[in-house]
Amino acid sequence: MSHADTRNKFVAVFEGIRKELVAHMKSEKMPEDAIAWFNESLIYNVPGGKLNRGVSVVDTITILLNRPPTDDEYFKAALLGWCIEFLQAFFLVSDDIMDGSISRRGQPCWYRVSDVKGLGKVHKIAINDSCMLEGAIYHILKNHFRRESYYVDLLELFQEVTYKTEMGQLVDQITAPEDNIDIGKYTLLKHAFIVRYKTAYYSFYLSVALAMRMCGVPDVYELDGKIVEPYKEADRILIPMGEFFQVQDDYLDYHGTEAQIGKIGTDIVDGKCSWCVCTALAHGTDMQKQILFENYGKKGPEQVMREQAVKAMYNDEEGLNIPKRYEEYSKNTVAEINAMIELVPESDAQNELRGDRLRRDVFRAFLSKISDRTA
User: Fold this and answer.
1) Catalytic annotation on 71?
2) Do 134 and 162 form a contact (C-beta atoms < 8 A)?
3) What integer pLDDT is reported at residue 59 of this predicted model?
4) Cα separation of 197 and 182, whole Å?
5) Are 61 and 13 in contact (CB under 8 A)?
6) pLDDT for residue 177
7) Within its chain, how far is the Cα of 189 from the centroid?
8) Which residue has the higher pLDDT, 5 or 141?
9) Confidence class of residue 202 from pLDDT cuts 50, 70 and 90?
10) Of 129, 249, 267, 270, which one is the catalytic site residue?
11) Burial of residue 122, with CB atoms counted within 10 A of its CB: 0-12 exposed, 13-18 middle, 19 or more buried
12) Alpha carbon distance 264, 282 (integer Å)
C-alpha cells in the first residue's frame, strides 16, 4: 500500500470518530450552535498534520503481529492512533495560546480564527476547546475499549504521557518565557530534559506502548532464559530517538528552506531553547557568546539583521560550524540507537515470532522514518 493509500485509509477512520463525537453531543441535548462549534473545532484542529504518530500505531501492530491486521484489529489500532492525534491537537491548541503563535499547519492558529461559520470568534474559547479535545480521547477509549483486558493500561498510558508532556511544557515555558528571554539559562542538558518530556514520550513512546498493550505484550516475560521488560526496552530506545527527532527539527528550523519544511523558521527570532543555540553556547568562544546574547531572541526593527548575525556565526566553517556539528551528532546518534536496538532480546527463529513479544523491527521502522529526513 502506498503512503497516500495508507494515509487515506487512516483518515477515513477519523470521519467515523467525528460523527460519533457529534452524535454524543446531540445525545447530551447540547444546543445546535455548540454542536456546530465542536464539529468545526474537530475538523480544524485534529486531522491536518502529518499523522505520523497515529499511523505509527497501525505500523507497530502490523510488525508485532508479523502479518497484516484483520479489519477489526486495524480499526482498533487506528482508533488508538487517532487518540494520539487528538492529544497532539490538545497540546498544539494550548501551546499556540501560550506562545502567542500566528499560524499552524498553513492556517491561522485556532485561537486566532475570527469567525467560526458565523458563530463568532474563537479567542479564549480555544482554552475550553483544547480541554474538549483531550476529553474526547477518554470518550473514544470508553466507547471502544471498555471491555478489553488492557483498557486500564490504555487509560494509564494516556494519563501518564499527558502529565509528562505537561511537565516538559512547564520547564520550557519558564526556561524561555516569551517576554523575558535569558539564554544564560540554556544548556544542552536542559534542552534534552525539555525534549524528553515535552516531545519524546507522546511522539514516540506512546505509539509503540499502545500497540504493545493492544497486542497483549506483558510487562515482563522470559526469552531464552533471560527476563525481558519490554516497556523499559521501548523507553530506553524511543526516548533518545525522540530527542534526536527534536534536534532535527531545531536544525531544520535554522538551516532548512521554507520549501523544505513548509514554514519560515523562527527559533532564533523567538529566542527558543534550541539545540543549535545550546550547542553554540557550549562550544563558542566568549566573543561568539557575546554575539548570541546581543542578537538571539531580539525582536524589533532590527530583528532580521540580528537573525542573520546569528546564522552567519552558526554557518562559519572556521568557527562554530553548526552544520558540521549536526552532521557528526546525527551520524553518531543513529549509530548509538542502532546499537541499542541490537540489544533488544529477540528469538532467532522466525517461526517463533509472536504478537505478544517485542521485536527489533518496531524500532528499526521508526528510525528509518526519521534518520534522513529533511522536512
Assistant:
1) no
2) yes
3) 95
4) 21
5) no
6) 85
7) 20
8) 141
9) very high
10) 249
11) buried
12) 26
